[in-house]
Fold this sequence. Notes:
The chain is mainly α. The protein is built from eight helices and no strands. The protein has helices at residues 2-15, 20-24, 30-53, 61-72, 75-107, 112-126, 133-150, 153-175. The mean pLDDT is 76.
Amino acid sequence: xxxxxxxxxxxxxxxxxxxxxxxxxxxxxxxxxxxxxxxxxxxxxxxxxxxxxxxxxxxxxxxxxxxxxxxxxxxxxxxxxxxxxxxxxxxxxxxxxxxxxxxxxxxxxxxxxxxxxxxxxxxxxxxxxxxxxxxxxxxxxxxxxxxxxxxxxxxxxxxxxxxxxxxxxxxxxxxx
Length: 176
């Protein structure tokens, strides 16, 4: 789903003879890494606080899949899963939500805070993990704030990658 949506978006941008990198501001600089680390730390602290208010059971959709994969899969399967979840998915999701969808709303002169909320809701909903919706929404808000204040997609990609890497490594360690 995500991959086909990204391909469609890239075709539309290319058809309009736009430079994809400059159109979506995709590049990662040192400042993006700094923003990514700072934003991840803020997200981690907020997530811990939110988890006390709305506890999420450990045994839910994605966690069950990870538990199965870490105990029943070949190391190569885990490697490719890691590459997809920690590197490709953040790029795809950020290009779609904080890049393309964000830009559509910006061109329509929609308030930037409304764009932040709408893209965060869409981001959380697309994951189809309804028990995780509050945390995914919060993640979307953090990713969006980083994108909004830096006006760069690279920064939101970095914080999303850090978030996914820490989540996946934690699950693998926990279930191994």
